[in-house]
Structure formats: structure tokens, C-alpha cells
TrEMBL record, chain A:
The lineage of its organism: Bacteria, Bacillati, Actinomycetota, Actinomycetes, Streptosporangiales. It is a multi-pass membrane protein. Keywords: Cell membrane, Membrane, Transmembrane, Transmembrane helix. This is ABC transporter permease. Coiled coil: none annotated.
From TrEMBL, chain B:
CDD domains: ABC_Carb_Monos_I, ABC_Carb_Monos_II. One of its GO terms (molecular function) is ATP binding. Residues 9-243, 249-498 form the ABC transporter domain. Keywords: ATP-binding, Nucleotide-binding, Repeat, Transport. It comes from Sphaerisporangium corydalis. It comes from the Bacteria. The keyword Hydrolase does not apply. This is Sugar ABC transporter ATP-binding protein. PROSITE patterns: ABC_TRANSPORTER_1, ABC_TRANSPORTER_2. SMART domains: AAA.
Length: 347, 501
């Protein structure tokens, strides 16, 4: 094809075909990349503060501990970040964290240990747990996409229903007598690090690659940015969002699995109250509640920031009665800082 | 003009209905290879429906679409359609949070396997160079201006290999020089053999870039002609048709020295309008006319406080309400009928009585209480005044027909006996009878001494105005006294006669 800046003879003056816009230079893309790293200075600052407050902070044991404590939260944030980027919501993740392992355990342990009495083979425990996570995500997707209900209210309802189901069939009891397989994941160390850190790292690596370098991952951004435009470009928007919800449920179940293994039991309130922290980490990490914006790496940084703050508060000897109020307050301040530094209204 | 044997695009006797309304009635269009073909018509003429049928987004109820003589692909075959026709829609399909490169290759960033961002940017740069678009492929699309985004859409549309492109009101959001550059580009594309269908409300533009023109009116095809064989006034006549017998405007004289009740001084708002002055005296009705992009709605919404102007002042009844604050504007003595009654006009689940008395609730009882008896009495009077067809004041407005719901909105606007009245498209979607009542109510208010601004897309409505102010691309271009002719006004609205000024 020939150059298109041919001036037609019919136009006096023949203005140039290409508008004389100033080229901003190729730095645009690199600046966009820098936004991902916005929280890295904050993380470094927190590490310095931690080291000043308590020398033991920098010990390998403590840092490993910080990471391990955050694995369960970080898997939820991974799930929520993907769902938020797709322009939807999922509040029910925290209940999946409790229900999925509770069912996985309850179906395989004997009735004497508060099981359901089905006594299925113990090897089925973990697959059942993960499958339940996927099914919950699929059901959320069904209500939101097929029945066109608001994701907010659907998953708020599911949050309550799932928690209620767990309390209902466990009679509000904690489940002990876990199968070996559950305990293994929470306690094993692979190459010197807890297994849960590896699992989490691998999950993030896959997520970052998929959302950064693969067509289907990119379509999540397109859907969250402008669903009509995505559809016009041939993206099967409903299917993609549905799969994202199922992956979200899967990750929440996995998170519950790790928590169960670490604590050695399934508490009736397992996961209760995590969702605020999940949203806070995602938003601090630069994920937009409006969809289409944010990266998984940023979300991971958000988790680390919150984890370090939590750890520093504990090391600084803040009393247990006050820690919740202070932690919540710091999250709100972090949200305000994120709002001010990004210079845009938080959406 | 040479007529090739098979036209590039043809829609044959297409009919499309949406429920009770017929959007296209046995209409068609024939576009020859390589020409730029204009499609014009007033709002609701069926242009958008034809676009969605020609782009395969909707299936016609009757009739067929042919590309180069061959039947169009089935509606499910999106890729098939994309190879035939590309469309730059009115609504942007650029995703602001993604880069330019990714927007260009959305959902085809790579074949299989991971995306190579470097090569994607390279491919994007090639595509942008090919169409002479000077935009950095790595930038976020949200940082581009309207013109650049549009160029992006054109480049993307053509990259699918289609040789026929529909431009749906591409000039509506552009300013003068950008429009000129767009036309330059369209001429260049035509020189390369691209066939185009161009939609615009500005007839002058049709004469600048198109070779032939098709006029739709009331869902029907009216005429197709070579542009150079169709003078301006005949084109306008084809668009407007003969004026239907409508409301008989009353004669009225505005008292000399009547006080100014509503005025705008040097009002500007972004790209919507600039430096507008407007003065409305008591007892006067001033019409505000212009096309969709003229800024007339934005101006009216600024007068009532729905929007805040960037510069300039609004004065209501001698007071200067807080800009962008509806409550203080209403307190100053203004009543208004908003553009979209469903959005801003009424609360559908509340009764007629509650809706109509919302602004005067504080006068219907003491200490914040509202007396149901007083409210009912007021509402009954309003129902009688405006002949609202209803089972009673307690019926929810959501149950009323469009015309009656609009009467409730008008009743609300008039509830506090306003000194200034702003009425936006009061007769859209209402029948002839309701129209007469609504226009009569505006004239009644003027006779009681209110000054009114009437914004309307309907020329007939504007007949009740003492003068009509015409806006074009955000500026007041002309003021026409009572007694104008349709063609005269439309010509000014469409920007045809701006050269004569």
C-alpha cells in the first residue's frame, strides 16, 4: 500500500495527512512499567523500619515466617486481582477458604471426628477440596453472567450462604484428625523453604505470565477495560469471565488447604474477615475496582506491604487488643497514600 | 460518475422492527466501488439501524445485504463480516487502559504461544506508518486525544483487510482542523480504492468529501443522488419532508423593559460550548436549536445547574446560584424539564403527587413534615391543569404512558411557579395531544410572566418561541426571530450557511 499522506488537489492548502502532534518519545511504555514497581520503595522502607525496631526482623526465620503467613492471603489476592481486572467482584472467596477444606476433610474422616460419616478414601480429600472451590466459582459465574445479577450482591450472598453451610454441617465444630495429605502441604519444606511459599510463588509466576504474555490473559484486561470493545474484537467475554471466577474459587480453596495444613485443623471461622484485607492489598497494589487496570505483580507487592506492616506491629510489641484497630487504620492510610501518589481518583 | 456493474455494497429492501416501532421500512442503499457515500437523515431516520445491519450486528427482519454481489455472511460469522466491512462507531471501542499496540491487535496479539511485546509494538508501528498515523505504539490509549483514538480505530478497522469502511458521525467529536485532517485522510483512502459510507449531521461536510448521498426519513429511503446534482435546499427538503400540521403557536408580545430573569454571560465548558451569552426576559420564550454536537443540551444543563461551566456566570432571577448546584438554582426560582425524563425527570415508583411536589415539599407542612392532604390537593390541581390521564394522584409515575409521565415532569417544573423555566426536548417520544398540552403549559408559564428557554430537536416545538438561538459546534452562530422557515433554520443548524455570515 502506498503512503497515505497524498494531498488531494481539490483542497486548497492541502494540510498534511499526518497531524503535527508532538511525539512524546518512546518513554511512555517504560513509565507504564515503572508503575508496577511503585511499591518496591515502600517495601524496602518497611524492611529498614523493621530492622531498626527489632534486629531479629532480618533473620531468615522471621522473613520466612512473614512470607509463609502471607501465602494464604496472597493466593486470595491473586484470585481477587484477576476478578477485579476482569471488571467483576468476588466477596465470597473468604468463605470458600473455610468451606472447601471443611468439606474435603469432612467427607473423608470418620463421623467420630466430626466427619460427615461418608468415610470416602482419604486420597480424595484434596481433590474434593479444590473441586468445591471450582464449583463455587462456577456457580457465582452462573448467577452473575447467565442471570445477569450484580456480582457484588451475588457474592455477598454467597459469602453468607457458604459460611452458613460450613457451620451447618460441622455443627459449628472445628475439624481435627486431618488426613496426612492435608498436614503435609502445611508443614513440608521443599529446598529449605515451606512448601506453601513455593506453591504461592509458582501460582503468581503462572498468573503473571498468563496475564502478561498470553492472548487469553490479555483478554481479561480488555474485558475489564471495555467489555463491548472486547466483544467486538471477538473475545468470548462471558466464557473468559466465567473461567476467571472458577480459577478464583480454585485459588481460594487452595488457600484454605494451606491454612488448614498450617493450623492443623479446620476452624468454623476459617477465612472469616479476610476479604477486607484482600481488597486492601489489591487496591494498594494498584488494581482498579473499576476493572481493566493493575498487575498481579503489583497485587503481590500489596500483600507484602501488608504482611510486613503486620509483622512489624507484632515485633514492636503492640498489644493484641489494639493490633486490629491499628492494622486497619494503617491500611486506610496506605489506601490514601496510594490514592495521592497515583494522582487519580481511586476507582 | 461511472457506475460499475456490481455495487460494492447493497442493502435491498431491508425492514427492521423493534417491538412496535419500525426502525427501517423497506429501505435500501447502493454504494458503488470506490466512492464515498453519505447517509443523512434526522434523528430516528434509521441510520444507526442500517449501520448495525451493514456491519452484521443485527439481522434484518426482511431484505438482504450484498457485498460485491455476493450475499453477506451469517450473523454468527464475525470474522467473515470483518473481512467485508469495517466500522468506526460513534462510541469509541478503544480500551483506554491498554497500549496503542495492544488495542490495534486486540485478541490477535499472537498466533499461538506467548506474546512477544517487542514484535507486537513493531507490527503496530508498521500498521501506524502504513496509514500515516503519528502515534507512539507503546503509549496507553487513554492518553491519546479524540482525534488520535479515531485514527487508531480507522487503522485497526482497515487492518482486517476490509475495503469498505463505515464512518458513523466521525466529525461529531472533532474540532475544525481535526475534521479537515480527517477529510484529507478520507480522500487519500479513496485514492487507494477504499469504499466509504459517511454519516454526518453536518450537510456541508457531505459536500466536501462525498460523491453521492442517500437520504433516509422516518425509517424510509427518500432519495439517492450524486452530490453535485443535489443543491443544498433540496437536500434539506428531503431530510425534513413537508411539515406536519402541528401545534398552533399563540401570538404574544414581550413587554419592552421586561426584567431579565435568566442570563448567561461568557459561558464556556470544555469542548461542549464556548463564550455563550444568552438573555431571557420575563414573558419571553427563547428557543435553542442546533445539531447533536452543537452544545445546546450542555448549555441548558449548565443553566439549570446539572453541569458547572468552566468559565462565565449564570444569573437566575437576579441571583447567581452556585455553579453546578441544582438545589441553589431551583431556590433562585428556576424550574426545568430535563433531557431524559427517565433518568432525571421522575422517580418511577413514587406517586404522581410525590413526584410533582418534590420541589415544593417544604411548603406543604411544617418542621419537615409533608401533609398528605395538602399534597393531594396540589397534585389534583396539577392533574387537572395538564390533563394527566391517571387513576389518581397516588398512581406511581412509572405506570404512566410517556406523554403523561412527561406531563408530571412538567408539573414538577412548574410546581413552584418559577420565574425562569428551562425545558429540554419536552416532546420527545410523546404523542400529538400530549405535545400540545406540554407546549401550551410552557406558553401559559410565559403568559404568567416567566422567562423560558426551550431546547428542542423538533422544529415544530420551536414555533412557540419569540426568537430562536442557533448553536453550531459549541458557538452561537445566529439568532432568528419568530416567523422563520424550516429550511432556513435547518440550514443554519447543519452549518450550511455559516459561510454566508
Amino acid at each position: 500500500m502506498t503512503e497515505t499522506t497524498v494531498a488531494s488537489p481539490g483542497t486548497p492548502g492541502g494540510s498534511q495527512g499526518s497531524p503535527g502532534k508532538a511525539r512524546p518519545g518512546p518513554s511512555g511504555f517504560r513509565i507504564a512499567r515503572f508503575r508496577d514497581l511503585a511499591l518496591v520503595p515502600a517495601i524496602l522502607l518497611l524492611i529498614v523500619v523493621g530492622a531498626l525496631i527489632e534486629p531479629a526482623f532480618l533473620s531468615a526465620d522471621n522473613l520466612t515466617n512473614v512470607l509463609q503467613q502471607q501465602t494464604e492471603l496472597s493466593l486470595l489476592v491473586l484470585a481477587e486481582a484477576m476478578i477485579l481486572i476482569a471488571g467483576k467482584f468476588d466477596l465470597s472467596l473468604e468463605s470458600t477458604v473455610g468451606l472447601a477444606p471443611a468439606l474435603g476433610v469432612g467427607l473423608v474422616i470418620p463421623a467420630a471426628s466430626n466427619g460427615l460419616g461418608t468415610d470416602w478414601p482419604t486420597t480424595l480429600g484434596i481433590p474434593i477440596c479444590l473441586l468445591i472451590g471450582v464449583l463455587i466459582g462456577a456457580f457465582n459465574g452462573l448467577l452473575i453472567l447467565r442471570f445477569k445479577l450484580s456480582a457484588f450482591i451475588v457474592t455477598l450472598g454467597m459469602l453468607i450462604v457458604l459460611r452458613g453451610l460450613q457451620i451447618g454441617f460441622t455443627g459449628g465444630q472445628n475439624l481435627f484428625a486431618l488426613p496426612e495429605s492435608f498436614l503435609y502441604l502445611g508443614n513440608a519444606r521443599w529446598l529449605g523453604l515451606p512448601a506453601s511459599i513455593w506453591i504461592c510463588g509458582i501460582a503468581y509466576a503462572i498468573g503473571i505470565l498468563a496475564l502478561g504474555y498470553f492472548r487469553h490473559g490479555r483478554s481479561i484486561y480488555a474485558i475489564g477495560g471495555n467489555v463491548d470493545a472486547a466483544r467486538a474484537a471477538g473475545v468470548r467475554t462471558d466464557r473468559v469471565v466465567w473461567i476467571v471466577f472458577m480459577i478464583g474459587g480454585f485459588l481460594a480453596a487452595l488457600s484454605g488447604l494451606l491454612m488448614t495444613g498450617r493450623l492443623g485443623s479446620v476452624a468454623a471461622a476459617q477465612g472469616d474477615g479476610m476479604i477486607f484485607t484482600v481488597f486492601a492489598a489489591a487496591v494498594i497494589g494498584g488494581v482498579s475496582l473499576d476493572g481493566g487496570k493493575g498487575t498481579l505483580f503489583g497485587a503481590l507487592c500489596g500483600v507484602l506491604v501488608l504482611g510486613l506492616i503486620n509483622n512489624i506491629l507484632t515485633l514492636a510489641g503492640v498489644s493484641a487488643q489494639w493490633i486490629q484497630a491499628i492494622y486497619g487504620g494503617i491500611i486506610l492510610i496506605a489506601l490514601m497514600l496510594a490514592r495521592v501518589t497515583s494522582g487519580k481518583a481511586q476507582d | 460518475m461511472q457506475q460499475t456493474a456490481t455495487p460494492a455494497v447493497e442493502a435491498r429492501s431491508v425492514t427492521k422492527r423493534f417491538g412496535p416501532t419500525t426502525a427501517l421500512d423497506d429501505a435500501g442503499i447502493v454504494i458503488s466501488e470506490g466512492e464515498t457515500h453519505a447517509l443523512v437523515g434526522r434523528n430516528g431516520a434509521g441510520k444507526s439501524t442500517l449501520v448495525s445491519i451493514l456491519t452484521g450486528l443485527q439481522r434484518p427482519d426482511e431484505g438482504e445485504v450484498l457485498f460485491a454481489g455476493a450475499p453477506a455472511p451469517s450473523v454468527a460469522d464475525r470474522d467473515g463480516w470483518r473481512r467485508q466491512v469495517a466500522c468506526v462507531y460513534q462510541k469509541s471501542t478503544i480500551i483506554p487502559t491498554l497500549t496503542v499496540a495492544e488495542n490495534l491487535f486486540l485478541n490477535r496479539q499472537s498466533g499461538h504461544g506467548p506474546i512477544n511485546w517487542r514484535s507486537l509494538r513493531g507490527r503496530a508501528r508498521d500498521l501506524l506508518d502504513q496509514y500515516g498515523v503519528d502515534v507512539d505504539a507503546g503509549r496507553l490509549a487513554g492518553e491519546l486525544d479524540v482525534e488520535q483514538r479515531q485514527l487508531l480505530e480507522i487503522a485497526r478497522a482497515l487492518s482486517f483487510g476490509a475495503r469498505f469502511i463505515i464512518l458513523d458521525e466521525p466529525t461529531a467529536r472533532l474540532d475544525g482542523p481535526a475534521i479537515e485532517r480527517l477529510f484529507e485522510r478520507m480522500r487519500a483512502l479513496r485514492a487507494q480504492g477504499v469504499t466509504m459510507m459517511f454519516i454526518s449531521h453536518h450537510l456541508e461536510e457531505v459536500y466536501q468529501v462525498c460523491q453521492s448521498v442517500t437520504v433516509f426519513r422516518d425509517a424510509r429511503h427518500i432519495l439517492t443522488s450524486a452530490v453535485d446534482r443535489l443543491p443544498h435546499d433540496e437536500l434539506v427538503a428531503a431530510m425534513t419532508g413537508e411539515a406536519a400540521a402541528g401545534y398552533q403557536a399563540r401570538s404574544r408580545t414581550v413587554a419592552t423593559g421586561a426584567p431579565v430573569v435568566l442570563s448567561a454571560e461568557k459561558l464556556s465548558l470544555g469542548e461542549r460550548y464556548r463564550d455563550v451569552d444568552l438573555t431571557v426576559h420575563a414573558g419571553e420564550i427563547v428557543g435553542l436549536a442546533g445539531s447533536g454536537s452543537s452544545g445546546k443540551i450542555g448549555l441548558a444543563e449548565t443553566l439549570v445547574g446539572l453541569l458547572a461551566a468552566d468559565a462565565g456566570t449564570v444569573t437566575v432571577n437576579g441571583r447567581t446560584p452556585k455553579p453546578g448546584d441544582v438545589t441553589s438554582t431551583l431556590r433562585a426560582g428556576l424550574g426545568f424539564v430535563p433531557e431524559d425524563r427517565h433518568k432525571e425527570g421522575f422517580v418511577p415508583l413514587l406517586s404522581i403527587a410525590e413526584n410533582a411536589t418534590l420541589p415544593i415539599a417544604h411548603k406543604l407542612g411544617r418542621f419537615g413534615a409533608v401533609s398528605p392532604a395538602l399534597r393531594r390537593a396540589r397534585a389534583e390541581r396539577m392533574i387537572e391543569d395538564l390533563t394527566i390521564k391517571t387513576t389518581g394522584p397516588s398512581q406511581p409515575v412509572g405506570d404512566l404512558s410517556g406523554g403523561n409521565a412527561q406531563k408530571v415532569v412538567m408539573a414538577r417544573a412548574l410546581a413552584d411557579d418559577p420565574k425562569a423555566l428551562v425545558v429540554i426536548n419536552p416532546t420527545s417520544g410523546v404523542d400529538v395531544r400530549a405535545k400540545q398540552v406540554l407546549l401550551g403549559a410552557v406558553e401559559d408559564a410565559a403568559e404568567r410572566g416567566a422567562g423560558a428557554v426551550l431546547v428542542s430537536d423538533e422544529l415544530d416545538d420551536l414555533r412557540i418561541c419569540d426568537r430562536v438561538v442557533v448553536m453550531f459546534h459549541g458557538r452561537v452562530v445566529k439568532e432568528v426571530p419568530r416567523g422563520w422557515a424550516d429550511a432556513e433554520l435547518v440550514a443554519v443548524m447543519e452549518g450550511v450557511s455559516t459561510h454566508d455570515d
